[in-house]
Design a protein that fits this description.
Layout lengths: L6 H9 L3 H13 L5 E5 L8 H11 L3 E5 L5 E2 L2 E2 L13 E4 L3 H14 L3 E4 L6 H9 L3 E4 L3 H5 L6
Parallel strand pairs: 1-2, 1-5, 5-6, 6-7
Antiparallel strand pairs: 3-4
Length: 156
């Protein structure tokens, strides 16, 4: 007897992964590679903001990470860069923690710079930015938090 299961069946019956994260779980592994250089667009010196939490968690976890925010020169004693093109090395992954209209500009910069992976933190995504990524060969994860949904898999 041969049993055929759809991806829906696997997700719903065996993995118990919410639909919004199903595709993302498979994509996440590539984003979470410790060899990736990561740019956090919207990094913040404010310890209450996700821009601080994600940037510092990535550094503590051993990732090579650059903070990007034109409003700051340093974040947690690390040089902060005004934009992606100012970084000393091209990042493999860009995490956006900015309003959706800024994310739309960031993904355009990613295309120009040849950056192929973008993680949009909840609240930073827009349909236009997601569509742009898909139409331009940029892998995108959205509706998932890099720390809560991504990094937790590394430590389990």
């Amino acid at each position: 007897m041969v049993l055929y299961l759809s991806l829906y069946d696997v997700r719903e019956k065996f993995l118990r992964i919410p639909p919004r994260l199903f595709q993302g779980r498979f994509a996440m592994k590539k984003f979470l590679d410790k060899n990736n250089i990561i740019a956090v667009v919207g990094a913040s010196p404010n310890k209450e903001k996700w821009g601080w939490k994600i940037f510092t968690k990535l550094r503590e976890s051993g990732f090579k990470v650059y903070p990007v925010n034109p409003k700051h020169e340093k974040i947690d004693n690390a040089r902060c860069y005004p934009d992606l093109k100012s970084l000393p090395k091209k990042p493999d992954v860009v995490i956006t923690i900015v309003p959706p209209h800024i994310t739309e500009k960031v993904v355009e910069q990613c295309k120009k710079l040849g950056i192929e992976m973008v993680w949009m933190q909840p609240g930073s995504e827009s349909e236009e930015a997601i569509k742009f990524c898909r139409e331009n060969g940029i892998e995108v994860v959205y509706n998932a938090c890099f720390v809560v949904d991504g990094l937790k898999d590394i430590f389990q």
